[in-house]
Amino acid sequence: MHRDRLRSLNIEGANMTRIPRREFLRLAAAAVAVPAASRRSIAEAFPSRPITIVVPFAAGGPNDAIGRYLAERMRGALGQTVMIENATGAGGTIGVGRVARAAPDGYTLSLGVWSTHVVNGAVYTLPYDLIRDFDPVALISRELGMVLTARNGMPEKDLRELIAWLKSNPDRLSVGTAGVGSPPHIAAVLFRNLTGTRFQMVHYRGTAPAAQDLMAGQIDMLFDSQITSFPQLHAKTIKAYAVTAKSRLASAPDIPTMDEAGLSGMYLAPWFGQTPLGAFLLRGEPTLGEGWTDPRC
User: Fold this and answer.
1) Residue 47, preceding bond cis, omega within 30 degrees?
2) Domains (ranges, CATH) in the chain?
3) Cα dihedral across residues 258, 263, 267, 269: positive or negative
4) pLDDT tens by residue, 159-200
5) Torsion over CA of 178, 184, 189 and 195, rounded to 10 degrees?
6) d(CA 82, CA 97)
């Protein structure tokens, strides 16, 4: 998303703070490679004990899936135990704060996302510094776009019908998010602003519980990752209206882009180090930089 557009979004539910444009751009530029591990000195014998990767969102979501896959690969590369700790809440700030407070020895790492290490700097008053308190280590995977999913009972057959219904029925539809400032939240706010519609936001402590409530019909829509939405779409337990990528996804060629579906200009491709999604191989350790390429990521 364009940085200026991000700064113009009206993100409700957060302890909003205004930061100078120059400071915001500094945060964004520093996240080209996801900020991940606390600053540290690395001993020659590293690692001599178990490593913890803190995933700042709930188990079962896209961040958790990538974190667990990453941990499995690290175990093989390092010959050491790598554990996952899910520290959820406040758009990922609780988990990231846990890493910021850890000893700077490389044994506590963070799975960062564009929202946790860029967006949250503009949304929350943080007890840590996203630049000084973290070192970027590696980019793990890049999301190609998010999927606008809905419960199966939604009668609107396409995006144009959905937008028309929303305009005629303000505040009657509920949209789940993974927390204030999370990728699903930013996507929902962008969608709302571009369409001129209104709906209720329901904030969860991660994508997984929001996706579960979507399948159960407790919420109406969710901007979800491919990782968590595709299994449910293939099982036909939910439906999809469009993807936020600029072109159709090879893994789901039947789902139109937002442009094709009738909403131009809505492009959102979080990185995972997802978001992106994040990343965290220790700088200076060549075994961590080798053998990580995998088409499934």
Assistant:
1) yes
2) 3-142+274-289 (3.40.190), 147-261 (3.40.190.10)
3) negative
4) 999 999 999 999 999 999 988 888 899 999 999 999 999 999
5) -140
6) 20
